[in-house]
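Entry type: protein chain
Record version: 2
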Amino acid sequence: MNADPERGIDFDSAVEAFLDAKQKGNDSGNYRALAENVLGRWSEWLQRRGVDDLEDLDSQNMRRYAQRLRQRARARESDPETGITPASARTYYATISGFLTWCVEDERITTNPALARRAKSELPQDSGERTTQQFWSAENRTRLLRFVDKRAHDAIDEKGSDATGEVRDRALVRVLAFSGCRTAEIARDTRDDRRQGLFWNDVDLEGGSLRVLGKTQEWQDAQLPRQTRSALDRHRTVQQPPTDKWPVFPTAHAPTLYQRAREGLSERGLAGKEVETLLKEKDVEEVLREHEIAPPNLTKRSVRRILRELCEEAGIDPEGAADYLQAHGARRGLGDTLYRERGPGAAQRALRHEDPQTTAKAYQHIDAGDLAEDVSDVFENE
C-alpha cells in the first residue's frame, strides 16, 4: 500500500478520486450523483463515530452500517415516506462496497471490509415481491376534494374569517393531490431541522410553482396547477399572514404555540413576567402576529392525522391495509394518472425523479398492462 503511514487515508480525497475514475469510464451522471450522495452520508455517519480515515475502517463498522440501513428499511413499513426500500438499502451498500473495492485496486487499503459475511448478513432481504403501495384513485380523490370544498364553504358561511382550520385543510388536500409534493416538502419533519415546511415566500401563485427542499436535500421547483391556486389564495386571504415568511400550514396545537411565543418574546428582550402577563391578556395567536413570531408548520404526523380524520368524516375507506388516504398516495396517484395520460416523461417531471428508471419502475404495472392489451389484440383469433 502506497499510503503515508503517518498520515491516514482521507475519505474525501478517496471519494473524489473514485468518482473521477468512474466518470472517465463513461459511467452515467446518474450513477455519479447516487454514489456521491451515498458515500457522503456514509462518510458523515462514520465520522460521527470517530472513524476519520479509511485505515480505521473494519468489518464491524460495516456491520453497524448494514444494521442502520436495515433500520431505515423497517421504518418504511410504517410510513411510505420514511426510510428506504430493502432494494435501495442493498444498492447503497453495494455502492459503498464498490468504492472500497476500487480503493483496494488503487492500493489505498489492503482489504474491503464490506465484503465480510458478518457485515452483509445484516442487510434487509429483498424478496423481489411487488410492493402494494397505496395511490389515490380518481374516485377517492374526487370524493375527498368535494368533501373538503363543501366543508370549507360551510365554515366560511358560518364563521367567516374564523374558518381558518377548514380553509387550511382544503388547501392542504389540494396541494397534496395536485402538486406531487412529498409530505416532508410541505410539512415539518421533527427529525430534520432543515425541513420546516412550506412558507408563503415559497409560494408563487401567479407563476404556478412552489419552492421546496427535495428528497436530494436540494431546493427544487414543484408545479402548482390551477386546481390548487384558488384554495391557496383563499387560505392566504383568511389567514392574513403578517409576513411572507409565515407558515402556509401552521399548527393550531396550543402548547406548541405558547412555547413558540415564549421563546420569541424572550429573544426580543421581554422578561419572564412580562411574557406571561402578555399571554394572559391576549390570545396567543394574536401575540404571535403582533410580534411577527412565526408559529411552526404542521408536522408530518399532524398531516397524517388530519387526512385520517377527513376520510373518516367523508366516509372514505380505500382498499388495502391503510384505512384512510395516505399523503404519499396522493403523489403516487398523480404520477399514475400522468403516466397513463401524458406518458412517462410527464410523470417524471411532475414527480421530480432524477432518474427516468425510477419513474419506469414505479409505474411498470402500467406498461405491463398496455403490453398485455397489445398481445391480446395480436393473438385475438388464437
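Comment: Residues 1-7 have pLDDT under 50 and may be disordered.
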